[in-house]
Specification:
10 strands; Rossmann fold; single chain; alpha/beta
Length: 249
């Protein structure tokens, strides 16, 4: 396993490169010789049927899964430094009856002081600054368990953007979000991508948004079987085989 920085032919313009990544768990090969290249400022959608290895690949990038191969990072102006990664997990479940508020959640993540001791004015102002990045300041005092799917995604996104990362990874951010909420969330991600020049890697089972928002689509099924623009991948024989002839989702 090798995780580090890289120069590569594109120098500082590349944030993430994956070379010949293979993951074997027990006797089962989950991923085989995966190669990907994510440039700064791009939104890359990772798609594939259930069990294709998307979540395993994300875990490998986050350093949570052993692998063979190389994952290398570089960031503009930060040669020889490991890129900062923001991560939004897939639909965590919170108890609607839990009294924990959005402010409490942020305080637990951003402060060494237990939230039950109270949140200082300075900390509240910092939380509001984070929430302002995702246009969600009005959610600060809501209980986390009562948030809608779209509201929860905004809160988790605000957490992932503090401190500002070079690469933002989202695992099924559109899951549990209604159509109107999907549009709003994708508009916001596009705005954040451009404003902060972030690379965004997201997994999704919703392909309707890809032509509008994705720079690149990577279709995997244990290995990369199609990669290119949304138009190229969605029209490919490989996509048709996986999602129509096989009925995969």
């Amino acid at each position: 396993m090798n995780i580090g920085t890289h120069g590569g032919s594109c120098g500082h313009s590349c944030c993430l490169r994956i070379n010949n990544l293979t993951v074997t768990i027990g006797s089962q090969k989950i991923l085989s010789n995966v190669n990907m290249h994510v440039h700064c400022g791009e939104l890359v959608a990772l798609i594939g049927p259930n069990g294709a290895g998307k979540s395993t690949l994300i875990k490998a990038i986050l350093g949570q899964q052993e692998f063979e191969g190389v994952i290398s990072f570089s960031a503009p102006g930060e040669r020889n430094r490991k890129a900062k990664i923001g991560y939004v997990p897939q639909s965590p479940i919170f108890d609607p009856g839990d009294p924990v508020t959005v402010a409490d959640l942020f305080a637990c993540c951003m402060s060494k002081q237990p939230a039950f001791l109270g949140i200082s004015k300075k900390m509240r102002e910092k939380i509001l600054c984070c929430m302002d990045r995702v246009n969600a300041c009005d959610l600060i005092d809501k209980r986390v368990g009562t948030l809608s799917g779209g509201e929860l995604q905004r809160v988790l996104l605000a957490l992932a953007l503090e401190p500002l990362p070079n690469i933002l990874i989202l695992d099924e951010p559109l899951s549990g979000v209604d159509v109107e909420g999907m549009q709003s969330l994708m508009d916001m991600l596009d705005q954040i991508r451009q404003e902060y020049d972030l690379s965004i890697l997201m997994t999704t089972h919703d392909f309707s948004m890809l032509p509008t928002y994705a720079n690149q689509v990577v279709l995997i099924e244990q290995k990369v079987i199609s990669q290119g623009t949304p138009a190229e991948v969605l029209a490919s024989n490989e996509f048709q085989d996986v999602f129509h002839r096989k009925g995969g989702v």
